[in-house]
Specification:
This protein is of the alpha+beta class and 605 residues long. The chain is built from 17 helices and 24 strands.
């Protein structure tokens, strides 16, 4: 006989879309009479009536089928070759049961954050209509805190954009509570304190996280303020239809920085809808305008059907070779595949020493030739299937598919690019030493003339800090350390502790670039063979390029030397001019012209 508290159902089956699934057993917890005011009892559970008394605490899925709901009957599901038991028990739900909380939020896991928020609000958590606002804020600040602690950053795309939306949603709920100005950054410490026993690393990053959250809050308040009048006027204007036109939603997005989701949420609260289709049309029109304005080959390459269909492989040999011999696999004129080229066009070779622009490193330039043909390579981009696509100009002769050509990149430019690229690796390691381990790459570019490095940091580095960073990089250059590269399986590479980009999608194998014991990073670009090859390093400028993102532009080799020299000459001219003014001499007059001796010159000499 089955006890009354056990429900044996033949149809208790777990699946969620295509994938593993199978029979499921679930454990429910009886929270007692106070959650059953009508005293219905077990009928709530057995008749599957929505209630707060019987709450699922734990489930166990015997995953043995490859589920295809909607495609075939369950009786036809194939068995999995590897069966397993998938079991899940939510910690927060368990705590809620133990502490008898109304919801997961009414526990020690969230209440400290909620009570800290009450200090800034005009309404309390006890007021029923404001409970959701408090719960959203508590959940979202915890999400943001852990995401940033684990390397995420606010941005306008990808995961960074999702993170930005999460924070902004919480800020809007703060406004509903009557909170004025930024406040969520103060909750970061509460999250860290609440979780420190199991996640102590969050405490180490509280300063950075708080500052980034504060910057983002302040930026969002400006966004809300700037678009508020337009949105208010639009709601009044379209009160009859209760729908915001797509062009209004787009203008709020394009001009004032309102995400579409934010406008939609505000509209819904006022009882309006938005013209989502109209918004998408405006977005598409903007993309087409941008595409037409660019009109560049890179855009054309991405849209070319012939290039999309071209899958023959091309081998890059330029890590070690400055010269290559390759067979012409494909020729393209304005993205259209052709059999021969007599003027400007694009070439894919079986082997090439030319580096295609990628990973922030500019493309090589140079020349290709054979006995009946020669041309300049002015750019190299990656074709849709990653083959280096050489753009050639100044063509003499005719090039045919199947021809074999020699190739050689501009060695001097490559050497300067390599040096600038390697300097950015040293720069990142030096920034971590001086500013803190929260520093992470947010973008980079290197070419023959300079290197540019974008990084996460919450405030402008001081002049003293930048001077120390510059000193450390030059110290590592002076150490004459070998720059080693090795290709490793991704899991093995991760174990080396090498720095990787948070948002980058890596393949099964990666190149790891090491500079002595000072720097180790995942990198697919070209590098100098020794830090001493960089000559010297100089920071040209430092600036803000976004919320929590700074940019350093720098130089190496002779460019760096020339900058140091110009700086010294300017300083000397300024010093000479100041001294002449004090002594009544015309600017530029030599300090010894009136018989006086220089400060460094000894008497009698």
């Amino acid at each position: 006989m089955i006890p009354s508290h056990i429900n044996k159902s033949q149809d208790n089956f777990w699946e969620i879309g295509r994938g593993p699934g199978g029979p499921d057993t679930e454990l429910y917890y009886d929270r007692g009479e106070k959650y059953d005011p009508k005293h219905i009892g077990e009928k709530l559970f057995f008749d599957d009536i929505e209630n707060d008394r019987y709450v699922e605490l734990w489930n166990i899925v015997f995953s043995q089928y490859d589920c295809r709901p909607g495609e075939m009957p369950r009786t036809e599901y194939k068995e999995l070759p590897q069966k397993n038991i998938d079991t899940g028990m939510g910690l927060e739900r368990l705590v809620c049961m133990i502490q008898d909380g109304e919801t997961n939020f009414d526990t020690d896991l969230f209440l400290p954050i909620i009570h800290a928020t009450e200090k800034y609000a005009k309404h309390s958590y006890d007021e029923k209509e404001y409970k959701m606002a408090y719960r959203v804020i508590a959940d979202h600040i915890r999400t943001v805190t852990f995401a940033i602690a684990d390397g995420a950053m606010f941005s306008n795309e990808g995961r960074g954009y999702v993170l930005r939306r999460v924070l902004r949603r919480a800020v809007r709920y703060g406004i509903k509570l009557g909170i004025e100005g930024s406040f969520m950054y103060n909750l970061v410490q509460v999250v860290a304190d609440n979780m420190k026993d199991y996640y102590p690393y969050v405490e180490e990053k509280v300063g950075l996280i708080s500052q980034l959250v504060k910057n983002e809050e302040e930026s969002f308040h400006k966004t809300l303020s700037n678009g508020e009048e337009l949105l208010s006027d639009a709601l009044k204007e379209h009160a009859d239809t209760k729908q915001l036109p797509g062009e209004v939603v787009f203008k709020l997005y394009d001009t004032y920085g309102y995400p579409r989701e934010l406008t939609e949420e505000i509209a819904q609260e006022a009882g309006y809808t938005i013209d989502a289709e109209g918004f998408e049309k405006e977005m598409q029109a903007q993309k087409e305008r941008a595409r037409a304005a660019r009109g560049n080959r890179q855009s054309m390459h991405g849209q070319s059907k012939d290039l999309m269909d071209f899958t023959e492989e091309s081998k890059f040999t330029g890590y070690t070779d400055r010269h290559s011999t390759g067979k012409v696999l494909g020729l393209f004129k304005d993205g259209v595949k052709v059999d021969e080229l007599e003027d400007e066009g694009d070439v894919i070779l079986s082997e090439t020493c030319f580096y295609a622009e990628s990973g922030g490193q500019c493309a090589d330039t140079g020349r290709v030739w054979n006995d009946a043909f020669k041309a300049d390579v002015t750019d190299v981009q990656k074709a849709p299937h990653k083959q280096p696509l050489h753009h050639i100009e100044n063509v003499a002769g005719t090039l045919h598919v199947g021809d074999v050509v020699e190739g050689e990149y501009n060695y001097e430019d490559r050497q300067r690019t390599r040096a600038n690229h390697s300097s950015l690796h040293l720069l990142q390691a030096a920034l971590k030493q001086v500013l803190g381990n929260h520093i992470a790459q947010a973008g980079s570019y290197n070419c023959p003339d300079y290197g540019r490095f974008d990084f996460t940091h919450f405030e402008k580095p001081s002049d003293e800090q930048l001077k120390e960073v510059e000193r450390i990089v030059n110290e590592q250059i002076n150490r004459d350390m070998p720059i080693d590269t090795e290709v490793l399986a991704i899991e093995e590479a991760k174990k080396t502790g090498a720095t990787a980009l948070f948002d980058e999608k890596y393949g099964d194998f990666v190149r790891v670039v090491s500079m002595g014991d000072f720097s180790k990073e995942f990198c697919g670009g070209t590098h100098a063979s020794n830090t001493g090859d960089l000559g010297s390093f100089r920071i040209i400028s430092e600036e803000s390029v976004g919320s929590g993102i700074r940019r350093i532009t720098c130089e190496t080799k002779m460019n760096s030397y020339d900058s140091f020299k110009k700086g010294r000459e300017l300083s000397q001219r300024h010093s000479s001019s100041s001294e002449n003014e004090e002594l009544g001499r015309p600017a530029g007059a030599h300090p010894k012209a009136d018989g006086r001796k220089c400060g460094t010159e000894k008497a009698g000499q």
